[in-house]
Every structure is written in structure tokens, then in C-alpha cells.
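Much of what follows relies on a compact textual record of a protein's fold. A record is reproduced here so that you can trace the correspondence yourselves:
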Amino acid sequence: MSSAVRADSGTDLTDLPYVLRSAVTLGVITAVVVVAMSFITRFLAGAAEFGLGAVVLVAGLTAVTFLPGSWTRPRTIEGIAGAAGIGLAATVVFLVIDVSALQPTGIYTNRWHEIGGGSNWWYHPVWWMVGTFLPWMGAQILASQARSGAASIAKGMVTALALTIACWVLAVLLHFPGAGWNLGSFGVAFLPGVTLAAVLGALGGRRS
């Protein structure tokens, strides 16, 4: 009964066929972003590579982090978990595309794959974990926003980016191992950045 009520109200949309369709869409979007980044890093250099790469990276992070939550419209843990489920299933879709098309054609240099000695059993779990974690955080942010008003992807992403930049700058200034003024470090800094955004959003939602 409760599931029917949630479906009628248009929130916490976690019907399995809907989740799987959404996952396919997100998996294809992820593949497009990866291919776009591969061409940018291969054919551009310097400021052009950094600038256009930053735009594509931020667009990709926005899609992976917030689209699942926008699709499930989370208000409770069910909608948040549904968004995380979309993210996890989307990584499976992407990895099928990756193994069947991207890796064989050498479309991009896969550093995680190389670090693991060419084994997908090292590389794929990284995608599974990150691809599930980001939608989970994004859905938490949207759910917290909904408690105090309208959910906004733009507002959530701006907050996450501000905190990401703060984490990025601190990591470089404090000489965190491997940190530098590059898109790789920025991408890694997004993980704590979006987590802090989710925590702050949850605390703000409780106060309201």
C-alpha cells in the first residue's frame, strides 16, 4: 500500500523496471562523457584541454550525481536507495560498453586498468563504488532540499563544487600525496566535496 501511495504522489519512484530503464540511460551518458574526455585529452593541450575538460567533467559529475535522484524524486530512504541502485546498475551498463567497445578500440587510456595490471577485477570495482556513492550523495542532497522547499540540482551542484574546490586547494597546499593543479585531483576532491554537501544539507533539513 505504501508503495502505491508513493507512486501516486510522484515521490520515491523505485519501481524496478523504471530503475533499470534509468540505469541504461545513465550508463550511456557515462560512456559519452568518457569518450568526450578521451578526445579532449588526446587532441588538446594546455589551457584548452583543461578548460574544455573541466566543462565536460563537471557535466558528467552533475549527471552521475544528481540525475538518479531527480528520477526517483527521493523524500525517504527508499528514494535515496533507489537512486543509488540506479547508479550501481548504470555502472554495469557502462562497463559492458567499456569491455565490448571502448577497451578493444583503445578509445581512451585507462589508468585504473593499467594500475591493476590489465585486470578488470581491479578496475571495475572502482566504478561500482564511485558510481553508487555519487548518486547516493546526490539523492541525499535533493531529499534534504525537499524537506525545506523545492529540490534543485543547480543549487546542490554549486554547493558541492564550492566544497570540492576547498578540498582541492587544501589538498594541494598541504601536499596531499598525488594532489596537484589538474583535473584528476579535482575529480578526486569531488568525493569529499559532495559528501560534505550532503552532510550540511542533512543538518540544514533537520533544523528546518
